[in-house]
Write a structure and sequence with these properties.
158 residues, 4 helices
Length: 158
């Protein structure tokens, strides 16, 4: 009887052991998704404190036009730049664990903006790669690189 109970307990532990890393990865993906949702909300709100909390101190933000920002200049650009961020419309947002405490985010997003002076609407259609890093138990936005998608080619009449 003792042997069969020990055997059953060993089987149970063996069955549960592989689930631990998967559960951790799943929990990380949920946390990073929430962190990105908060980053987008903070950007739309133009909230300096929330942006600063979302970004890593080591932020490297490469815009689709080639401009490079660090944490300070990116926050200032969102707050005092020429555009208001109205909406982030993700067409694809995939999270990929890259190692302990590092998650890649890749996909396509339509960034809807409005010029503060003219009121003109602008939509940037971007492919992107971003890096999230866990820093002292909090997921922070470490890096962004994007490129603009070309507009669809005009159709030719047949």
């Amino acid at each position: 009887m003792k042997i069969s109970l020990l055997f059953a307990a060993a089987l149970l532990l063996a069955a549960l052991a592989p689930a631990a890393p998967a559960a951790t990865a799943s929990a990380s993906m949920v946390a990073v998704t929430a962190a990105d949702d908060e980053r987008c909300a903070a950007t739309q709100a133009g909230d300096r404190a929330r942006l600063a909390a979302s970004y890593s101190d080591d932020l490297h933000y490469a815009h689709s036009n080639g401009k490079i920002d660090n944490k300070s200049s990116q926050v200032e650009g969102v707050i005092n730049g020429p555009n208001i961020y109205e909406k982030f419309d993700y067409k694809d947002r995939t999270f990929v664990p890259a190692g302990p405490g590092v998650v890649l985010m890749k996909g396509r997003v339509l960034v809807h903006m409005k010029n503060k002076t003219t009121g003109q609407k602008l939509v940037n259609d971007l492919n992107y790669l971003a890096v999230w890093r866990e820093e002292n138990g909090t997921w922070r936005f470490l890096a962004w690189q994007s490129c603009k998608n070309l507009p669809p080619a005009p159709s030719t009449p047949k």
